[in-house]
Design a protein that fits this description.
The structure is a homodimer. By secondary structure, chain A is an alpha+beta fold. Chain A has a single domain, classed as Arc Repressor Mutant, subunit A (Orthogonal Bundle), CATH 1.10.10. Chain A is 47% helix and 13% strand. In chain A, α1 packs antiparallel against α3.
């Protein structure tokens, strides 16, 4: 399996970040990932969409610089690039995740 | 001229807000509008796109609940719905505008 490509810190843009977070499925995924302290197998986070659709969403999140994905054996492990995003756009992701939680708490997600 | 339709406070969604801000032209427009203390004629804010394209962008911003547009005679006047957005999604727009300014200060815009 080819290693995943990721944008460098300098390549991450604010509009790219906002676009990636502007989809309910992707925002929900990032919300779930943010509650975990370590990288997660992609299948460990429940999503309401087909696997192929989720692959697309993960690609958008990876290309926007929000998640890092690496393979280990046959598994893909995903983690948030929280420190980098916070360093680049202070307060943005935190405020978005707080607003997302206020609008639709994770417990209520199907 | 028909009055413009606007979403109510309850109809404004976080993903709609993020989507509307995820375009560089729209984000730049909101950045400019945020520096003004009062509503602006649409033509008063310089944009790098054709008038018809800007009409589309303004519609996206209006339908997302970010701007309010009203007509006065033959003029359309635009204002940010800053207080409502802050009440609904505390800190989000402020953090986004700060990050936008850090990434691309308004002075550097063409």
């Amino acid at each position: 399996m080819k290693p995943y490509q990721h944008p460098t810190f300098d390549q991450i843009t604010l509009t790219g970040l906002l676009h990636a977070l502007s989809d309910p499925v992707r925002l929900n995924f990032v919300q779930c990932l943010a509650t975990k302290m370590c990288e997660q197998p992609c299948g460990a986070i429940p999503t309401p969409v087909a696997k192929s659709t989720m692959s697309h969403h993960l690609r958008v999140l990876r290309e926007a610089g929000i998640v890092r994905i690496r393979t280990e054996g046959t598994q893909s492990l995903t983690s948030l690039r929280l420190a980098e995003i916070e360093a680049k756009f202070p307060g943005v992701l935190e405020a978005v995740l707080k607003a997302a939680e206020a609008e639709k708490p994770l417990e209520q997600h199907s």
